[in-house]
Design brief:
alpha/beta, TIM Barrel, globular, FMN binding, EC 1.-.-.-
Length: 333
């Protein structure tokens, strides 16, 4: 859901409050990925949440959502090795679990570039990164948001620690599946301690190969994520958000240990299947992404079985109003 419309200083763009206000009828809005530090930025023109100016920018967004009766969780996303020095304020090499390039194409101001070999985080530095998540979470609450979602999915830093081909560390954060999960668990604990577990959600994407990650075969993935979710469950976080690729056996195992809300989104899910996981008892909530992006009144459209606007791919990441706040709502009598 990255939209690349933030200001150069990482504050939300001038139309961000309108964008989120338009979609407040969804009830709970999970924001675009928001970096907790300069090192956390991956793409150009993405928002941050670590300076006073950024806090004030997000306050406008939170106020707009609340005025329309909605709630806002800000997604904290550290991109790790999915970055390029041209896209960050300090222009340093990205940081990652290990010095292994993702070998991904990255859009920069100078065109398409390959992601470079990142710098491996020192063991003593990891506590500082956890502190960045803690600070960003506190900043979200200061800005008036209702909570945060920790992004441990889709190829970014926390997911990189879980993946054996990206994490080849020899310390307590690498090697065994328990060690690879340690960083994610410590971030979750720190954020929950800072703002409350009931204000903290987390997103995972088992076996999702984005960002050049390879988490191994089915049984390896199952073992990794059963351990991770089993260790997260006692924290009683607000929700677990699963980007699901179809391993229903794994999803059912989450259901057995997770006592709070379970959000499930299936890749490529059509309109008719939005509620299928809820009806099957596998989920409590069905997040909407592209449907909500192109339809500010998606709730009304679904209730009335009205047609949906299609996403315009050409305007997803180019900035400006077009394809952002100008998707039409249903005509009203």
């Amino acid at each position: 859901m990255t939209r690349n419309r933030a200001n150069p200083d990482g504050t939300p763009g001038e139309h961000a409050a309108t964008y989120y206000r338009q979609r407040a009828s969804l009830g709970l809005l999970i924001s675009e990925g928001t970096q907790p530090s300069e090192d956390g930025q991956g793409y150009f023109s993405t928002p941050g949440l670590y300076t006073p100016e950024q806090v004030e920018g997000w306050r406008e967004v939170a106020d707009a959502v609340h005025e329309e009766g909605g709630h806002l969780f800000i997604q904290l996303m550290h991109a790790g090795r999915i970055s390029h020095p041209d896209n960050t304020p300090h222009h340093r090499r990205p940081v990652a679990p290990s010095a292994i390039s993702a070998e991904q194409d990255m859009h920069t101001a100078h065109g398409l570039e390959k992601t470079p070999v990142p710098r491996e985080l020192g063991t003593e530095e990891i506590a500082g990164v956890i502190g960045e998540f803690r600070h960003a979470a506190a900043s979200a609450i200061t800005a008036g948001a209702d909570g945060v979602e920790i992004h441990a999915a889709n190829g970014y830093l926390l997911h990189q620690f879980l993946a054996p081909n990206a994490n080849q560390r020899a310390d307590q954060y690498g090697g065994s599946l328990e060690n690879r999960a340690r960083f994610v668990l410590e971030v979750a604990q720190a954020v929950a301690d800072e703002i409350g577990a009931d204000r903290t959600g987390i997103r995972i994407s088992p076996a999702f190969p984005l960002g050049g990650l390879d988490e191994g075969g089915t049984e390896t993935v199952r073992a990794q994520y059963r351990y991770l979710v089993g260790e997260l469950a006692p924290l009683n976080l607000a929700y677990l958000h699963v980007h699901h690729l179809g391993d229903d056996e794994l999803l059912r195992s989450f259901r057995e240990v997770w006592s709070t809300a379970l959000l499930v989104v299936r890749y490529g899910r059509g309109r008719d299947a939005i509620g299928a996981d809820i009806e099957a008892g596998l989920a409590d909530m069905a997040p909407l992404g592209r449907f909500a992006l192109a339809n500010p009144d998606v709730v009304e459209r679904l209730r009335s079985d009205a047609p949906l606007n299609d996403v315009d791919p050409a305007t997803l990441y180019v900035g400006g109003v077009s394809g952002y706040i100008d998707y039409p709502a249903l005509a009203r009598a």
